[in-house]
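Q: What residues go here?
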């Protein structure tokens, strides 16, 4: 195997990524060397490239790309759960100083990946990890969503939102989701009751769908004013608000007067701290099980990008022009 590889490198902030040769990594103890077939592009990747996204702790120059799907080609010392030739997927690099997935090969902690669902293509699998882990950590790890609950997902057609809807449905909840008028049909297809947030204010849809009692779980995937609205939409005493974008300044008074609970979701923490990495692998196995059971799908943008098109892919994400998750392909299916 050649000791170099092609990779897309963000040399400096706010500059195009450069595709060039860099050294091919060698897997260390507990790591896998994966030949990357596809890399999912997240808004965070574009923010890092623009010099923002400081919470990701990814100094430039760097190879970006958080999500990946590919094939194991080499095992590091001590790895027993995977074999050469295994197809895997995961959220395993691109932050915290680690090399990302926009390269022909990546060395990753074996705990962070899982066997790729057979029912998904490499493109589809690469689109799934970050959004699924974020949705699962909120709904399952924090809120223990279960049958009989009414769950409201803000941004139900978005990356995290569409997965959150499907997880809540699979676990037996009655699911509602907000979106713009153009997204309501997609939300309905996912199995949720759509709510046009521009046509109905919070009090109106809480009265309509919960008789004014509030939702058992409200998951905010939008942030800002949407999180404030979530505090007014949750059930008294037993309600639980979640947010993966609760980074601003918010008044807790509406939540406190309801005696309700709030949990933040910070999906990057295991990659940044090393703590909880095995749980990410477990969550991805749950994703695979839902896919194989026909209870989970991921919408991928139909535009095909290769590594040489990486800047066009980043522009599509940064400008919000995608119809589903943007994926860069680095190898044959």
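A:
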């Amino acid at each position: 195997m050649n000791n170099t590889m092609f990779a897309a490198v963000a040399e400096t902030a706010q500059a195009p990524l450069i595709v060039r040769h860099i050294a091919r990594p060698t897997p260390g103890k507990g790591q896998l060397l994966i030949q990357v077939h596809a890399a999912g592009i997240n808004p965070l990747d574009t923010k890092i490239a623009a010099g923002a996204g400081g919470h990701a702790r990814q100094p430039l120059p760097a190879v970006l790309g958080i999500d990946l799907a590919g094939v194991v080609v080499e095992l590091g010392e001590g790895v027993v759960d995977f074999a050469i030739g295994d197809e895997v997927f995961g959220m395993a690099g691109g932050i915290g100083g680690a090399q990302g997935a926009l390269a022909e090969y990546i060395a990753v902690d074996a705990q962070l990946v899982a066997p790729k669902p057979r029912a998904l293509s490499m493109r589809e699998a690469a689109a799934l990890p970050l959004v699924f882990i974020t949705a699962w950590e909120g709904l399952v790890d924090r809120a223990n969503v279960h049958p009989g609950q009414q769950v409201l997902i803000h941004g139900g057609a978005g990356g995290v939102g569409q997965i959150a809807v499907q997880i809540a449905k699979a676990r037996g909840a009655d699911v509602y989701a907000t979106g713009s008028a153009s997204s309501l049909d997609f939300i309905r297809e996912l199995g949720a009751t759509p709510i046009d947030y521009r046509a109905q204010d919070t009090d109106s849809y809480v009265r309509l769908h919960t008789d004014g009692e509030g939702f058992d779980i409200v998951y905010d995937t939008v942030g800002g004013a949407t999180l404030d609205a979530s505090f007014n939409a949750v059930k008294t005493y037993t309600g639980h608000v979640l947010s993966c974008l609760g980074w601003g300044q918010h008044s807790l008074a509406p939540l406190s007067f309801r005696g309700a609970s709030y949990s933040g979701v910070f999906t990057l923490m295991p990659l940044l701290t090393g703590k909880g990495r095995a749980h990410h692998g477990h969550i991805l196995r749950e994703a695979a099980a839902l896919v194989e059971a026909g209870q989970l799908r991921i919408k991928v943008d139909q535009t095909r990008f290769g590594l040489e098109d990486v800047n066009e892919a980043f522009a599509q994400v940064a400008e919000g022009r995608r119809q589903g998750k943007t994926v860069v392909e680095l190898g044959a299916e």
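A: Context that may help when evaluating the design: The chain has eleven helices and 16 strands. The domain at 131-264 is CATH 3.40.50.720 (Rossmann fold).
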